[in-house]
Amino acid sequence: MSAAERQPRFAGASDVGRVRSGNEDSLLLAPPLFAVADGLGGHQAGEVASRVAVDTVLANAPRKADSKSLGRAARAANKAVMEAAAAGRGRAGMGTTLTAAMIDGPRIAVAHVGDSRAYLMHRDGSLERITQDHSMVADLVRQGSLTEEESRTHPNRSVITRALGSDPNMNADTFEVTARPGDRLLLATDGLTSLVPDGDIADILSRHPEPQAAVDALIAAARLAGGYDNITSVVVDLAEDEEAAVQKPARNAWLHVALWTLALIAVVALAAGGVYRYATSRAFLVAEDGVVVVYRGVPGTVAGVSLRWRDQSSDVQVTDLSLPEQAALKAGVTTDSLAQAYAMLAAYRVEAAKNAAPPSPVPLTPPGEATGTAPPTQTATGAP
Ligand code: MN
Q: Would you say the pTM of this structure is higher than 0.70?
């Protein structure tokens, strides 16, 4: 196998998103070294911080895929971000996340700080998150006080607990993983992962065998889900183990096909039943024809199948809500139950009433029937 054939196929891109005016994310495509960084600080400072971080990691890149050495490069990047701020590049208090990976055959060394992520997509279609977010919501999920789903829409979801640029003694998480043949590495900033659930990321990665097409589709999905943040993703296809493929005895091929087909049928049947039960227990709110509508089920489609049942429309005008709420409702706001969806609808109604233009002297429609429960009244009957 020549060196050229061992070169992994890869692609990466960064997109400003649909809301922010500047892009504070940076990425590094320098095989065998890859990285993403999500800068913080505003006024272009985040952009400086993330750029300084990836440049410094590259300048201090280890010779081989060794996580301790990569961790030292991350510490150098931390120092460089602090020095840049002190020297008037960017501004004081700027910082950045950093998720860097160095690849050597099946070995991947990772250094990680913040809430950007590294994933391994296995050939069987499963997606494994190999980094742990250094964020407030990730801590709450680990403690069990927040679900993964809730963490994606939590108001404090972007509060990170570790970053480059503030603590001179900062240490990165460092580790090595051994990939299996045909695995795919994904590095991404939270502009992707907080808007596109892991299941959808897995789906997109498996539908796009070309790294560039996968990167483009991931960014498109995050934009479609709102694009509130800068979106960066890097996809690296790890070299196939060609020798192993050649040595596989051909006469067992039919047996493999039969066994895999049976396994696949079982998995699909189990998954379909599970997905259906899951979907029927859930609910979501979505903007439709200018008003908030409550559905049972889940927004979008699951494997091309729509699992949603319209429960009730409402009189809550979407334009009476805040812009972030409007954007969230455009994508669909999921809840754990129908009761929770109606509780949210009630909250939206209160807010819409606050934001709505003062009523015209002649109301066009009479106020609706009060369906809420009347305030509890003290009954004094029989009291002394
Ligand atoms: Mn971000």
A: no
